[in-house]
Amino acid sequence: MTDEFECDRLDRRRRAITDAARALFIEQGFERTTLGQIVERAGGSLATIYKLFGNKEGLLDAVVFEKAASGENLIREITQCGASPADTLRRLAAVLYERFLDPDDVALVRIVIARSIEDADFARRFFESTAMHTRRALERTFAQWEAQGVRLYGPPDMLAEVFLGLMVSDMQTDAISHGVVARPSAERIAARIEFFLRGAGLA
Amino acid sequence: MTDEFECDRLDRRRRAITDAARALFIEQGFERTTLGQIVERAGGSLATIYKLFGNKEGLLDAVVFEKAASGENLIREITQCGASPADTLRRLAAVLYERFLDPDDVALVRIVIARSIEDADFARRFFESTAMHTRRALERTFAQWEAQGVRLYGPPDMLAEVFLGLMVSDMQTDAISHGVVARPSAERIAARIEFFLRGAGLA
DNA sequence: ACAATCGTGTAATGACTATTACACCTTCGC
DNA sequence: GCGAAGGTGTAATAGTCATTACACGATTGT
């Protein structure tokens, strides 16, 4: 009767709880959200939360890494469909803007950062499974192009860092800091890509 | 008898309290730091804190904006000493790395972000008085160079965004997220600057 | 020195919330 | 239908901490 799976009653409960928790965490942050509010929205009871997630932090863990896992294959799909480097980077930029500036994603990153003050390892794991993942995938792509005879101004790891920094890091930093960031226009994105291609020796 | 000023007894008290508060906020974050701990480290009493800062948030405000104000004239000093654009940007990059990756600064930004979940305006004010300030100063510098006949590939506001994004945003994002970020080597910084100069048409 | 001002130390207030315990009721296999 | 397994709702536990109140002692201007 649910939308996707129905393996078990517990699975439905689990899903309902993480959905409610994610929404509330995004609205109010982790600390201000009480387990009572989550139960109120998801139905069920406190005891179920403790049975499924151990404690409040376990619930945050589940919420955050569920979301982080959902973007894993993104880069690979785009970089492996054989388009030219320039076209690949153009398409990649569009996807990165979409993903990294998504308000829910930004809110989750804020929560991870806030939590990281008390639990640095939590943030490191999140960071490793998102930003680092993206960066290394891109680095491999540059290395692959180089192996195919494309001449690049600079080593793949630097180019990967620079591409990501150039495209979204500054805006993501602004967004995370609650600066008012408008989604950049298509022309603005295009200008940044051309800038990158010139700097990398691809144009 | 104090190091700098001694206008008043209250001023000394104020300084001692914000110093202790800053250190504790950086160590533990805002929420986990109790006013009791601050009193314990700074001496004095709870009543004094309430008299000087109103409440705990007022104290955070004082700590954060005291630090933010200290970097106001940084860009202006560097951009107005008449060096060539390339040299100016080189020197600017060094200063930005120094400042934006300073662990205490990064810890404060984390605190601002955490707080911003509950008070978005707080973060906006911080952001306006730091990152936006830097960006606009840099934008004016590019516009000035253009007016002096330097030809640039792209409008000053885009170049300012791109320069900051390229130099430090990605690393600052990593640092804020508790990713392990090594201070980049001189060669790495130099490579990024050359990358920017190529992209901007300055080399 | 003196008195008034003002910071200090302590303790009380009041509210909040993660976590646990417990007694019902629903669900599912048979 | 029946009985066990396991959610559910409620309430108790227990600790924390911002904030306020208050009586005491130090400091300062005269």
Task: Give an account of the 3D structure.
Two copies of one chain form a homodimer. The first copy, chain A, has 203 residues and is mainly alpha-helical. The first copy, chain A, has two domains: 9-66, Orthogonal Bundle (Arc Repressor Mutant, subunit A), CATH 1.10.10.60; 71-200, Orthogonal Bundle (Tetracycline Repressor, domain 2). Helices cover 74% and strands 0% of the residues of chain A. Chain A is built from ten helices and no strands. The first copy, chain A, has helices spanning 9-28, 35-42, 46-53, 56-69, 74-79, 85-100, 103-116, 120-147, 156-176, 186-200. In chain A, helix 1 packs across helix 2. The longest helix of chain A has 28 residues, at 120-147. Mean pLDDT of chain A is 88; it is low at 1-7. Chains A and B meet through helix 7, helix 8, helix 9 and helix 10 of A and helix 7, helix 8, helix 9 and helix 10 of B. The structure holds a DNA duplex (30 and 30 nucleotides).
What keyword list fits this structure?
homodimer; 203 residues; mainly alpha; Arc Repressor Mutant, subunit A; Tetracycline Repressor, domain 2; 2 domains; 74% helix; elongated; disordered N terminus; DNA-binding
Domain count of chain A: the total is: 2
Largest interface: A-B, 51 and 51 residues
Please identify the oligomeric state: homodimer
Give a count of the beta strands of chain A, DSSP E runs of length 2 or more.
0
Give me the CATH fold name of the largest domain in chain A. Answer: Tetracycline Repressor, domain 2
Number of helices of chain A: 10
The residue-averaged pLDDT of chain A reads: 88
Q: Give the name of the CATH superfamily of the largest domain in chain A.
A: Tetracycline Repressor, domain 2
> What is the alpha-carbon Rg of chain A in Å?
20 Å
Major sheet characteristics of chain A? none
What series of H and E elements makes up the topology of chain A?
HHHHHHHHHH
* CATH C-level class of the largest domain in chain A: Mainly Alpha
Question: How would you classify the helix and strand content of chain A by structural class?
Answer: mainly alpha
Shape of chain A: elongated
The name of the CATH architecture of the largest domain in chain A is: Orthogonal Bundle
